[in-house]
Amino acid sequence: MSNFKINKSDKEWQDQLTDEEYHILRDKGTERPHTGKFNLHFEEGTYKCSGCNQQLFESSSKFDAHCGWPSFDESIKGTVKYVLDKAHGMTRTEIVCSNCGGHLGHVFNDGPTETGTRYCVNSISVKFDKPDK
Fold it and tell me: Given 49, 52, 97, 120, which residue is catalytic?
């Protein structure tokens, strides 16, 4: 992918990210369900891209979808790009950081809230910031 504000070589990403972060963010990997540190995390704050620190999701949009990955019913406006994904014999919508193109997960139209959407995100793709008190 290109056309992102942050464009780095594979070597630069490998130097910056852990092996797990690189696998998820750059190789479009997926962590095993129910293993991510943010799956059942419900503190107040903001979830940011592990690759570039762009704010992506507010904690107020997070819910337990019982799917094994952190789920949100909306992203912060303009922070996520949507990409058609036909890998693995399925048609899905991939979500990537609009700033660096890092793979976050997928979005589905089966959410239980008013938005009807479920952003299914890899914990490794995001960092969490608590609000200053």
Answer: 120
Each residue's pLDDT tens digit, 7-38: 999 999 999 999 999 999 999 999 999 999 99
- Classify residue 114 by burial, with Cβ atoms within 10 Å: 0-12, 13-18, 19+: exposed
Q: Cα–Cα distances in Å, from 71 out to 10, 38, 51, 105?
A: 28, 9, 19, 10
Contact 14, 114 (CB under 8 A): no
CATH placement of domain 10-129: 2.170.150.20
Structural contact between residues 63 and 71, judged by C-beta atoms closer than 8 angstroms: yes
Active site residue 120: yes
CB 72 within 8 A of CB 62: yes
Give the model's pLDDT for residue 2: 63
pLDDT at residue 1, rounded to an integer: 46
Average pLDDT, the chain: 95
